[in-house]
Design brief:
By secondary structure, the chain is an alpha+beta fold. The protein is built from 3 helices and 8 strands, in the order E-E-E-E-E-H-H-H-E-E-E. Helix 1 (about 50-55) crosses helix 2.
Amino acid sequence: MPHAQTQIASSHSHHAISCNHCDYHVTNIQPQAYVIDPNGKRISTDSISQSMAALYGINQQVVEAVMTGKNEDDNAKALHQMVLALSGKLYRHNCQQCANQFSLNPQKDNHACPHCWSQNIVKMSGGEQCPKCQQGELN
């Protein structure tokens, strides 16, 4: 089941899509980066390195150097694995069964709708069949 999430200083751009046949509309389909806080809650962020510094006290420049491969010693490898485990991207999905909209990390979350548990879900990017009317196309 997708984790609850909070927002930390995010100014990402929004990209909306709508059905060309009915009133189904999604206001934001852009992927959203997140960091998991010490309580296990996903915190939306525009900067994983800034959030790691704020939440875990890790120097932001060190995180950036590790994530870009500029620091590859044994400690850097361990930090890199930690950052990967504590961060990710959420993608907007819709359920073709109940038309529910939700976010999930395809690499870490169950591929099922959190509302009806259908596995008939689609990552929203435009061009998908409308889950509400089943006749229109999202674009």
